[in-house]
Structures are given as structure tokens and as C-alpha cells.
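Can anyone check this?
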Amino acid sequence: MLRTARGVNYTFARDATRAPAVSYYDYIIVGGGTAGCPLAATLSQRFRVLLLERGGSPYGDERVENMTHFTATLADTSAGSPAQRFVSEDGVINSRPRVLGGGSCINAGFYTRASDDYVLDVGWDLAATTEAYRWVEDVVAFHPELGPWQSALQRGLLEAGIAPDNGFTFDHIEGTKVGGSIFDDEGRRHTAADLLRYARPEGVDVLLQARVAKILFNVGGGRRPVAHGVVFHDSEGQMHRAYLNAGRRNEIILSAGALGSPQLLMLSGVGPADHLRSFNITLVLNQPAVGQGMADNPMNAIFVPSPSLVEVSLIQVVGITQFGSYIEGASGSNWANPRHQASSSGSGGGQHRPPRNFGMFSPQTGQLATVPPKQRTPEAIARAADAMSRLDDAAFRGGFILEKVMGPASTGHLELRNRNPDDNPAVTFNYFSHPEDLRRCVDGLTVIERVIRSKSFQRFTYPDFSIEMLLNMTAEFPVNMLPRHDNDSRSLEQFCKDTVMTIWHYHGGCQVGRVVDAEYRVLGVDALRVIDGSTLNASPGTNPQATVMMLGRYMGVKIQNERLHAEGFKRRKL
């Protein structure tokens, strides 16, 4: 049983070691993440659902629940971390979730909807998506109160011409706005796992530490392959099988994310034939598009040291430009965590200082770390941490103003490294391979320069720090494994390429129209869908988490209503 952050007992959730060797369900959902949790909660209202999550619980885990632990969690490379690090073939350090609630447990918390144009272009029903968004927002979305630094950023964006002022809104509108947050006013995170409070307890089983090895198919006889079960292992290595109940509308649904879903399709025999055969994987369906269309919205940031104290903040304000770049910012100890409060060690024993967590400057963290990734031996990390611990907190005071490219237009691909589902696949995003992405990055950096120079932001900048100095300072941080060039401060194009980072909005690999149809059914096989960010052809809005949670609810309602109608039941409100 799990006790949630709001005191609701999840009697239906348990460790996979307690699962039977064989079980049967109407729906088997692989991945208890941002889409999987709302999907399972919805389908459980009328059907028996199994939700398999490879990670553990977010509840009672300060790494997830406490906003100030954001960067420390990304730096945690232990086997039990809710974040699993991977490095793309491009040399950019990234993370994927490994916890119930998925990416909503390890992200920066910004909550914003997709635009109406995006919804209509995808082919979703506008009224139904609005209802699904509200269903999500009633549990996880909050109105943040801006501190001085975020307020200055908001005014600076308006002064820089990113108008109008749209105030607080969940909607995606050109101009400057304050968006929602999944952090409440006490800095506590609320995640997609909280949406399981909507579940019918008798209708769902949630298994944690359940690592799915492959999907089982019935094949042969000249018929299309039919998914009918999954094989998974618990934390002790014991194998379990879960099968679909008899009934042609029962289904397996992959919600394992943009890396996990295409990876699991390939491991199950659905993917590019030659690639699968190279790993001695029995081919179920030759589907060359699996793993294609991988994209990650490039992010570039400028660090702005501040002479004034700044609040701890993650993303709260966004400037939505007309040219396809989104301007955001984060400040304070989450990006350069100060020393923890000193504590007494006896009546006359002096002071004991716990280790400092330097956030995005941390020697252990990929982003903005002080030790280049290829030199991150334990000894080098220890030396860097010791040297940094001697610096005054003022050396890290400030914030980052960043720009994210919409889309993006540049795409890559994903391939298996081996047959182990716990290992990261090899993924290439081809950042800035399309010139439109590079143009948008340069235009976004130009807006950031105007914000830094604005009267509204004067309190948080040193007057003698030129833009060139800030660019050079930022370019010195080993944010990725790419080589640097001497002209980073003179060429914004080169700065974009050299300092590219992720903002963790990667998507693709099982795209609509290529791997799945408009109803998210996998093309060429039966009883199998993919419902998660791997199906997206572009990232929605300025942050995808709201839309991915919405998609889980939206498709759950749609599947349930269509099935009930087909089986002769009267449609009912969910």
C-alpha cells in the first residue's frame, strides 16, 4: 500500500515481488508515467487494468517531492534514483524517469497547455481536450506566486517586446505569461501519480519495480500479429507473465516514454528488420519507422550573476515569441544550491558543515557542471567538490535566462545497444541540423540580451558585465561533451551549437502516421497501442507534461466510450 502526498491510500499498488506468476487483465499498461497514470485511472472505472512501472514510488521520497532537490535528483546516478541518466550520441547529457509518475517527478514543474492550433492539427477534439486538461489540473496544477527575480524577468520580457502581458494562464498565447506549476505554495511537487486518486481501487493493480522484458504476440497462419501478454521481472529477478483476458477489444498499451516505448517495441520484434536481426531478435513485424523521428528541443542558457539576493525558483514565467523561441528563467539555490545551514556539534564543539549541493554547477550533474563529463572520475569529482566548497555563496548567486526552440525541425533516431530493457538505447537527436532551429536559437538569445539590458532587470545584473562577458562565462561551463570554439561570444550561431543542452522535452520514435494510427494503434499488429510522448511529431506548447497527462485521460475516455458503445452500453459521463 502507498500513502500519497495527500493522505490517500493506494491499496492497489505494491511491489512486483508480490505479483502472481501469471495474471489476466482487460488492459495492460506498460509505464506508470505522465501518460500511463491518468490512462490507467480512467480505464479502471469500467475494466480490469494492470499498470507496470519499472521504478519505485515517489511518495515519501524527498528527491521527488521537494523542489529544492530538483538538480540533486538529476545528479543522482545510483541504481535507485528516480532519474536515469543517458548521454545522446550528440554528446548532450540527459535524463529519463524511473519512478511512478514518470517525468512529472523529475522535471522543473512548469504546467501549460498546448495551443488550440496544435490540438486541431493533431486531430484531437477541442472540447474533449479542454475537459481532460481540467481533470488533470484539479489535482496537480497550481498558480505560482512570483518572487522578485521572476517578476523582473516578466517585466524585462515585456520591455524586450514580448507582448502582450497575458498574466496568469494555462493557455498557450503569444506574449509574456505566468504559467502553472505542479509545485504547490510550500514547494511540494504533485505528479501524474497523484492522478491515480481517480482510479477505482477494484479496477487496477499497480506493480512497482516491474521491468517489462517484451510483449508477447500470437503469430502465424498468415494473420496479423496479435499482442496478448507481457513478460516482466521483479526486483529479485523473478519472471512474471501477464495476459489479456479473452475478448477482442482488450489491449496492451505502451506508455513507457519516448525512449522506452520504441525500445520495447524493438525488443519485442517490431522494428527495422535488419537492426533486430543483428541482435538475434525474432522478427514479428518489419517496421522501419520505429525509433525514427526522435527530437529534443534544444535549450541554450545565459548565466546572469546577481549583486542582489535571488529567490529559489524554477520555470514560472515564459515569453512566447512570434518567431518560434520560448524564453524562460530559473534562479537561486536550485541552480546553485547554497551551503546547508550550519549546525552545532556539541556545547563547545564548533560548527559542522554538511556537504554543499551546487545544483546545476555540481561536479556530479551533467548540466553546467564544473568537471567535463569525460573527466568525471570519482577522484576528479571529489577534488572539484572540495574546491567549490571553499567558495563564497555569492559566487553562485544569480539565475539562468534560457531559450528553447519550438518543434524542433531537426530529428534523429533511436537504436538498441543490447537486449537489456534496463539499459539505455542509443539515441541521436541531431541538434541544429535544420537551419530553422539555429535561426530560432539566435533570435531567442537576442531577446535574452534585451532582457538583461532592460531597466526592469537592472537590480539583478552587474553594470560592468557586458553581454560578451556573460556569453564567455556561460560557454566556459562544460555543459555537454562537445568541443568549444574561440568565437562563442562573437557568433551566436556557434554559441548555440557549442552550449546546447536539453530541457528534457524529447519525443518521437513511435510517431502518429508512421508507427501508430490516429487512434494510437500500432500499425500492422492488433491489440497494441502506444499512448505517450513517443507519438508526438512536435513538442506541445512550451512544456509537454500537461499535454501528455491530458492525452492519457483523453484517450482513456475515448477508448472506454467507444468500447462501451460498441458493446451496447449506454455512454456515461466519466
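Reply from J.R.: I decoded it. Residues 1-5, 334-359 have pLDDT under 50 and may be disordered.
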